[in-house]
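For this section, I looked closely at a protein sequence along with its fold in token form, which I now present.
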Amino acid sequence: MESLPCNISQYLLNRLNDLGSKHLFGVCGDVVLGFMEQVTKGPVKQINCCNELNAGYAADGYARLHGLGTVVTTFTVGPLSAINAIAGSFAEHVPVVMIAGAPERHHALASRMLHHTLGKKYGVAREMFRDITVACEYLEDPAKIPQQIDSALAKCLFYKKPIYLELPADLVVHPCSPPGKFQFLEKTSDLGTLLEAQQEVCSALQAAKQPIILLGWEVIRHGLQEKVRTFIEKTGYPFCVFPTAKTALSEDHPQFLGVYQGGWSREAVRKGVEDADCVLMLGGFLIDSDTGGFTAKLDKNKLIMANFQNTMVKHHDYQEVYLSELLDKLIEKNVDKKELPSFIPAVKALEETHDYTPEANAKLTIKRFFKRIASFLQPDDIVVADVGESLYSTTPMLLPNGVTFVSQAFYNSIGFSVGAALGASTFQKRRTLLFVGDGSFQIGAQEISTMINYKCRTIVFVINNDGYGIERAIYDGPYNDLSAWRYHLLPQALGGDPGLLVQTEGELEEALYIAEKSKTLTFIEIRVDKFDFGDILRKAGAAMAESSKNSYEPRAT
């Protein structure tokens, strides 16, 4: 056989590097060691994580900034540890490549009782991943592997959803031809259907006296921000974003009204959306976390839902009309600017949120903490918020120009943010700020050591309210309590400097001064009362308690 200048591992790594995944996150294991050795010689740099779940979250956070993320584990025990992270990426349309090592093929053929298997069943992980990926491939035939890799990656990038690749150890250095030009998956709308959709959307907008644009996460995932900005500025329409699309466009834009979250929104934002006679929803979905627990009052007769692959106008469903092409047609159409009712942009309405004077000895509260953070943030920061108070308090906050907001606002897996912050901050010059509650932090705490090891420029705020605050806001009981950690001392045990404990407004000022000067990790424990909730969490808790009230028995008093 003629010697070939590439092997299968190199092929895959070169593809990942060229497509934007220049780092991968993983945990070693025997059957994947050969692949990891190839990583040490190739263009993609490995970040060693503490566990597979956090590695999956890190790949997700990385993908949200770079367009593609990668996680690598050993066989079965690795992917099953990472499966929840991949499920979250699937739910939120994040392109992540899950690579699992596998035993040499002769073990599977002989059905041997090998470690990391469930007896003689070797394909269990693959079967589990089929429902949460757009491609799930066992790379067993060397002649087909390059095509399998390319096809899976093309689907990952087109649909913005995860893929699963399982590579047997005996094929890691098997020779193959080097990568040629990558063929991206391309699909186009039927022209007639596209033009009909364009005409109906434009007619509805032209007839409206009070239109508004509402942005969802697909605008971010599919890189449509510039097209959306062009259309918004051409029409002059005000726009809002769902929480899952926060920072899709700059929040200091003069047409930005604010974050819409149904009945949990600022009143001016709620009225702006719900009083509109035409709502053009671009890339959004009517999910509970975006609609304030389904408190949104959106008349479907006034709602246009334009998503990645289809557009709904009233009762007309235009299938296989792609959002990118629809935007091109909407921009191309001469939609006349009209006299619209006056509205106050978010940048004006929320000016007072930066008006903060600390009271040195005052006990710190949730509301005052996030009010101070609003003026601490800088342009181009990366803000990562976990589920619960961190998400609910940062959602309405006005963020500076260029800030990237990362949160798992739909799938809502607590602990996501710690790994995601690692991925988001990996080899970044930008500053990353992580906001996470103590309950969520205990799930992913180990990855603080990875941030320290790789000198990530991250400011970690652990909001310690003695347990699961988001659950207490719904219904309290002993199941919401946690072991009391001395969070601010943890970084020292994990290889860094001790953190800072903040209980007063004066201590917060001192901690922020230190954080602002630091070029590596700064860890700050924010200690507040266990029933100190922000406004949105209080509303959310009450709404969730009401919707599930029949599941609780009255307590004896």
In short: The longest helix spans residues 191-207. DSSP finds 22 helices and 21 strands in the chain.
